[in-house]
Design goal:
five-stranded parallel sheet, alpha/beta, 5 strands, 12 helices, 42% helix, 249 residues, Rossmann fold
Amino acid sequence: MIGQVAIRIAMWSGPRNISTAMMRSFSSRADTVVSDEPYYGCFLRESGADHPMRAAIVADMDCDWASVTRTLSGPTPEGRRVWYQKHMTHHMVGPVAPDDLDDFNHAFLIRDPARMVASYAAKREAVTPADLGYATQRAFFDRLCDRRGHPPPVIDAADVLADPARTLAALCGAIGIGWDPAMLAWPAGRHPRDGIWAAHWYERVEASTGFAREEAGRPLPALPPALQATSDACRADYEAMAAFRLGRF
């Protein structure tokens, strides 16, 4: 990457939110390398959360907040110009915040909480607002608005699925990279930069070769009372960020 300035994209999301499909999309660019939830090990070690494959993930990853942050701020892997980093806001229980990634292009991926709750509950029996990370995601969003004087880019999963080319082109423009139609497709199967937790969580995206549009236009799922309460608790944070989303149709 001689003579080029690295563009680091910190994409802040929550679980069950097309975040892995977005990582696949960016990995299809010839100029881009991706990282999959680099703070996950830090989160598991700090919180003690009982997640699937917990011991294997902690053993596999750098679990030191400062060390991970130095790596993410260091040389771009493979000499690529763009480094897309997929982050889960519910992982950020330690000392790291957007201020520690000040020269990054921060962006936010959101999804209606009813859809996230339904998808998460299919993989784990219990789901709480903290599991979905909306409050931290909004806090990071507000912090960046205050720090930089303007809102960072926000995209909604529903807009991506309804019109991937238009929404992703708007995102690329907002973060200062050119639109690449290669982002609309990727090979099926496991990606070499997937975290080892892919074995538990990524079955559907591994079968995909592009953004699935079947969700676009569907009504929100009917939820049992406990899950509806979780969805309702997240809605204000979701709507506060959704007001700024790119690609509104």
